[in-house]
Specification:
The protein is mostly helical. It contains 21 helices and no strands.
Length: 443
């Protein structure tokens, strides 16, 4: 692969790193800013989920400016929002000020969750598209792991430790902003805007040895300016079916319970009998597992395919979620909860964690890719927000750990249901150009 392809992929994937870092850094900070602001259960839920309200808006509305101004330009805007959020959250003087800056960060997360994997998929040759696009998810889990490790490293810095945890996110955000000036624009966006000469140059630099004239004509023929420019076509045939599938993929992804695990794992481990510092250490182990199995998935996604990985993961996650639920119903403490949580995270990372963002970037035709990816990501963040807000309320509604047990039993049932949905409605996308996929999917 050419060096430019590595560079462009790495820079775009930094959006995933910031996505992971910004969503997970609150995990270790939560016990400390909860005490600092003396939060009630409802305010805690709002504080934790405030960023996600921004994610919902960012994911939903990024498609139109992403189409108008380009993926690269809007990613620069997202980088600026990440910086503002990191500094503002860490320096907040009230819980409401804190929430406002977390919403700003959420806008950046939502936008990056759409634009980064889409940009990578649009610059990637078909044979490498799966493993290159999955670098976005790998960057997400690296960001989560680094956030957990940062929380652990800063835990002993005094009463303002939680402030430094948030402020530390400004460093990678600034790096992301600077590096975005060293990457080219998406060739498919350039074709859509009629910049054919620049598109040809980018395609040539990223696809050595390929027939660039053929690639360019294939992209041109796949674009209908009327469909690309008007929202009404998204919800009519032949695109309506894809929009519904995208929404359901986002829903099933969140109803695995991965958001609850990644954000509330320290609280869950404390419920299992661990101290606060030990619980945060367990979250680092969870983050490392997530990263390890995402790397493994990278080597398989272009070999065995997206659909088969989803089916394997759905069965594995269902089993471990059910066992995890049973453990909390029976109030079993010690290392068993950690073992089964790690097993669940491994199955998630290998399947839905690795595949879903790749699917959002691949499954929509050139005409509606930005808007379609926005809808799929919007669904993901809506259910993410719902779960983060509801979980602490359910947990506190029961005098013991049964609330956690009920939540994970629900996740087990829905995840098992997703197996049948994926098997019936998803099309395998490995090894095909985005334009070839369009001919197969849009019938």
């Amino acid at each position: 692969m050419p060096r430019k392809l590595y560079l462009y992929t790495f820079v775009a994937a930094l959006g995933g790193f910031l996505f992971g870092f910004d969503t997970a850094v609150i995990n270790g900070a939560l016990p400390f800013f909860r005490d600092h602001f003396n939060l009630t259960g409802k305010l805690e839920g709002l504080a934790v989920s405030s960023a996600i309200f921004g994610c919902v808006a960012g994911a939903l509305f990024i498609g139109i400016p992403g189409d108008k101004y380009g993926r690269r330009y809007m990613l620069r805007i997202m980088a600026v929002l990440f910086v503002i959020s990191a500094l503002g959250s860490g320096l907040a003087t009230s819980i409401y000020e804190f929430m406002i800056f977390r919403v700003v960060g959420g806008l950046a997360i939502g936008g990056a969750s759409v634009l980064s994997p889409m940009y990578i998929s649009e610059i990637s040759p078909p044979a490498y598209r799966g493993r290159l696009t999955i670098t976005f998810q790998m960057s997400v889990v690296i960001g989560i792991l680094v956030a957990f490790a940062t929380d652990l490293a800063l835990i002993s810095t005094g009463v303002n430790n939680w402030r430094w945890m948030f402020i530390s996110g400004a460093v990678p955000s600034l790096l992301f902003f600077v590096l975005l000036f060293f990457v080219g624009r998406s060739p498919r966006w350039l074709v859509k805007k009629g910049h054919y000469t620049e598109a040809e140059e980018v395609l040539r630099s990223l696809n050595p040895g390929e027939d660039i004239s053929f690639l360019l004509e294939e992209i041109k023929s796949s674009i209908n300016s009327d469909v690309a420019d008007h929202l009404r076509h998204m919800f009519s045939k032949p695109y309506l079916r894809l929009m519904i599938i995208g929404i359901l993929v986002g829903m099933f992804n969140q109803f695995t319970g991965i958001a609850v695990v990644m954000i509330y794992s320290s609280d869950i481990f404390r419920a299992a009998g661990f101290s606060t510092q030990s619980a945060i250490l367990q979250t680092v182990i969870v983050g490392f597992t997530n990263l390890s199995f995402t790397i493994i998935a990278m080597f398989f996604i272009d070999r065995i395919g997206r659909k088969k990985m989803l089916l394997i993961g759905s069965i594995g996650m269902s089993i471990f979620l059910a066992v995890f639920s049973y453990i909390f119903f029976c109030d079993i403490r010690g290392f068993l909860p950690m073992i089964f949580m790690i097993a669940f995270v491994a199955c998630f990372a290998f399947s839905q964690g690795a595949v879903v963002w790749v699917l959002f970037a691949e499954m929509f035709p050139n005409n509606i890719r930005a808007k379609g990816s926005s809808v799929g990501s919007f669904s993901h963040w809506v259910f993410y927000t719902l779960l983060l807000f509801v979980f602490p309320l359910i947990k506190k509604s029961f005098p013991d750990n049964r609330g956690i047990g009920y939540v994970f039993a629900f996740f087990a049932v829905i995840t098992f249901t997703s197996f049948f949905f994926f098997r019936k409605y998803l099309v395998e996308t490995k090894g095909k150009s985005l334009e070839e996929l369009e001919k197969e999917i849009v019938k």
